Amino acid sequence: MKESSKFSISSKWKMLLLDMGIDPSIALTYAKLPLDIFNRSEHRLSVDEYFRLWNGIEAAASKQEVALLFAKYVSAESFDAPIFSALCCENLNSALQRLSYYKPLIGPLLLNVAIDDKKTELKLECNIASGTMPYSLCMSEAVFFVQLARLGTRDSIYPTSVTIPVKPKQQESYQSFFGCEVKQGNCLAITFKAVDANKPFLTASGAMWAFFEENLNRQLDNLTSEALMTERVKTVLIKSIPSGEVNIDFVASQLAVSKRTLQRKLTEEAETFQSILVSVRKALAIHYLKKSNMPLVEISYLLGFKEPNSFIRAFSGWNGVSPSNYREKYRH
Question: Around Cβ 319, how many Cβ atoms within 10 Å?
Fold first, then answer.
């Protein structure tokens, strides 16, 4: 799956924020972003800027729940092309599959969809190396997928289960919206009944999709060429480290370049393969220690270390504290 390090922001964000009663300029000020980005024809944000924007929106909303405001005011006209194209699909299943393909254009999130004859389950995770998903982004994503089903079918679709990696600040309000208990887990996961996921979208339009398809595919094809080699290497390592593939030859083969070309491009970006491997391992280690109860021996193998003591020594060298002490300190 392709991933991007830059994400487009359109003027529709401004319109939606105003409808939600959130001052865009205040949100951008909190986010420390240029105040005119919503007025530009297209502006692309880095992962850090994208997350800051969401944190800024949350700050500007004061004590209001951004995701619940989003649910109230979002409409088909609010969506950018990649999301609007999902409404052109025949049902929720095909919409989710299309979004999974084009999600790299929308934000630093990976969408996986599993469909069988009883249910449809989607899982959404943040690219680990990019950091932790802001609260309002996480809740808004959960609300979005349910609202997508309702907008497409013009029916009151309710999921059978919702799991979110954050604690909702208004538990009862969210349970009322979703129609089921909101549980906490390691990633955002939503399950729909098969009958609901296959319910026809009244917004389906092959002609409208044809209008978007060529441009969206072109944008997706440009991701790989636009991304720095450093980011491309990180993407491969995040997926391959758990299987023990941590050598430069394997990564070069996955990127379809020679080892020499890979080393040269990394040198041009003032990086080395080893420095990137260490940074990814550090990020993954912290993620596992903070977000899971996995024993250190299991974490060490997931990070590609042959034995736990090697991981413990490496982590202590990176952070000046042992993994056990780090976990204990973080949780207290």
Answer: 15
